[in-house]
């Protein structure tokens, strides 16, 4: 059984996820924790639930999703996995972080690459990697078939989609990949988004104003 816990961190209100199997083997996905209080909240949850972090993963590498990368790597001695197309995106954060008020941002580097179709083991559970670029050039999504749950990053939100006006964004590509990758999943699949509440494939397939059946685009 895969359990998912959401934290909302930093001024961008980014969703950080800790997921784990029944034995407490855990992955930290998109750590947006930057302040001492945010880091303490994440650390306390892991300690109180006796979890053992084994993986650090990025769906993509915009600033709000990577603020805690370096700290998490050091705290739990983890290696960072990301798609190869996100390397320049991650590298650029150290250049513009001060402009967003994140003085003291500590840069990090990826340690290995995640590939489309790959299965990532978290203890007894496995996540399938789906490639859904458009919001970012190397954006990936993590799908757990057995529980019908998906860590979607900034691809699909409740009644919305990820923005595509940032460097490397591609609006048409994002719409196409949401339809081909995410909408190929069962309707009851829960999408845990990078911002805001979770949603389901079935709801978005009908109601999403950008990619649903009633879309005006």
UniProtKB/TrEMBL annotation:
Its cofactor is Zn(2+). Residues 13-195 form the Metallo-beta-lactamase domain. The keyword Hydrolase applies. Keywords: Hydrolase, Metal-binding, Zinc. Pfam families: Lactamase_B (PF00753). GO terms for molecular function: hydrolase activity; metal ion binding. This is Glyoxylase-like metal-dependent hydrolase (Beta-lactamase superfamily II).
